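Please fill in the sequence for the structure shown.

STRUCTURE ENCODING:
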């Protein structure tokens, strides 16, 4: 099929070492602690509905969706006892309010979602979020796509190095994925479905491709260029349609879902299962690469101990992909729905070796959003958040290309992430406060 080209992006070594044919399962230990933050990036905080000492089963709701704004229910991923409701560690927010559950003996079963026929409610009640990393609530996408969308794009391109978790789902759950894709297509009356594959996912997913062809689903094989799989980029590459700033894909009649999210929706709709676990890739400078089902709320420390990794042997541990993930210093942060991998690397973190910008322009050349990462970085470093916003900070898709190519080791994407997570929120709060005070 015809593909549109976009400016920017980079070619990355694939390093796809984890065998996608096999999915292991991480055991739960008696007495192990699991951590569930009440917040995620796009949603209002959920409200705890359990108290300290409460006995819970895997799948039980422990926090209900807030009645305002976007919000989802949160479920226990294990059988256990509520240990505490307190500040917990978080890889991006440092600390946040959350629920701690101490695992007891596991039945291996889960409490099913309350029956409802409405797919949007099932997705919301199951707590399905964009599992490719963005974490946008899937029920909102579903609702905004009704009677509007002519094309469903399934993002299975997995262009980040090391990751094969999406590929493992394509290989091992091909029938379930096709069933769910056709279900969504029928329910939302969508004319066309395109599945985007890239690199290894193109080469090793024969069963899925055969099933797709037999179901009139188009397969698009993308060139190996990162980040063609960004949501806006993918829509443009496949359809030539441009999603304007601040708008959803439904504004150009497209619904786009990551393949792991489709599987999460399948489990919710067909098995009444909330999102209590997911497949992640464990890889990097190690021998024992693998894809493994991990319960939500498992700490990185616990995962590494169970898999016999000594964290002190690695210079850098990343939660998520090499390009878009977060380097963590604290191993007691939990693995959440948006975490696709844990990478153990020998390379050192760019730390105090940042040098002055050499004005080479490489960061600008690779930016698929046509931003000036160096300009935005300068504004952030000078504390001028107004200027950073004028320079379109919020359009950054956090692909990491600018940091990757910077010859002066400047932490460009990292500064943008920090500004988005902390400075912009503070700035908006301060502006609203000023308005309120001025209006009195
Ligand atoms: S500014 Fe944002 S979108 Fe542009 S290259 Fe850097 S991380 Fe990617
Ligand atoms: S890539 Fe680095 S050195 Fe080059 S212009 Fe951008 S910030 Fe400056």
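FILLED IN BY: designer on duty
SEQUENCE:
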């Amino acid at each position: 099929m015809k593909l549109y080209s976009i400016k920017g992006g980079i070619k990355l070594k694939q390093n796809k070492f984890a065998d996608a044919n096999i999915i292991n399962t991480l055991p739960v230990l008696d007495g192990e602690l699991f951590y569930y933050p009440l917040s995620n990036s796009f949603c209002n905080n959920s409200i705890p509905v359990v108290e300290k000492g409460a006995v819970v089963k895997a799948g039980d709701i422990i926090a209900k969706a807030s009645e305002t704004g976007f919000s989802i229910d949160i479920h226990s991923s294990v059988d256990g006892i509520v240990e505490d409701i307190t500040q917990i560690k978080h890889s991006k927010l440092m600390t946040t309010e959350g629920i701690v559950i101490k695992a007891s003996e596991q039945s291996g079963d889960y409490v099913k979602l309350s029956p409802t026929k409405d797919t949007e409610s099932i997705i919301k009640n199951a707590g399905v979020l964009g599992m490719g990393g963005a974490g946008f609530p899937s029920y909102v996408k579903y609702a905004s796509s009704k009677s509007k969308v002519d094309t469903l794009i399934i993002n299975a391109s997995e262009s980040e190095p090391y990751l094969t978790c999406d590929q493992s789902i394509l290989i091992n759950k091909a029938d379930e994925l096709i069933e769910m894709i056709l279900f969504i297509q029928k329910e939302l009356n969508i004319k066309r479905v395109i599945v985007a594959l890239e690199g290894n996912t193109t080469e090793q997913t024969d069963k899925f491709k055969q099933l797709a062809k037999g179901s009139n689903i188009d397969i698009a094989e993308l060139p190996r260029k990162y980040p063609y799989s960004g949501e806006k980029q993918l829509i443009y590459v496949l359809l030539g349609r441009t999603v304007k700033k601040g708008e959803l894909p439904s504004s150009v009649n497209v619904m786009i879902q990551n393949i792991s999210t489709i599987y999460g929706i399948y489990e919710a709709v067909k098995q009444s299962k909330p999102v209590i676990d997911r497949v992640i890739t464990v890889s990097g400078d190690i021998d024992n690469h693998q894809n493994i089902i991990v319960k939500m709320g498992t700490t990185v420390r616990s995962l590494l101990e169970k898999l016999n990794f000594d964290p002190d042997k690695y210079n850098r541990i990343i939660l998520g992909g090499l390009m878009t993930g977060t380097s963590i210093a604290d191993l007691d942060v939990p693995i959440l729905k948006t975490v696709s991998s844990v990478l153990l690397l020998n390379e050192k973190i760019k730390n105090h070796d940042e040098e002055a910008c050499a004005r080479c322009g490489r960061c600008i050349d690779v930016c698929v959003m046509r931003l000036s990462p160096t300009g935005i970085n300068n504004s952030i470093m000078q504390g001028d958040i107004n200027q950073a916003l004028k320079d379109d900070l919020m359009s950054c898709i956090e692909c990491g290309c600018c940091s990757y190519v910077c010859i002066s080791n400047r932490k460009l994407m990292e500064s943008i992430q920090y500004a988005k997570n902390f400075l912009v929120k503070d700035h908006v709060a301060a502006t609203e406060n000023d308005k309120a005070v001025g209006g009195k």
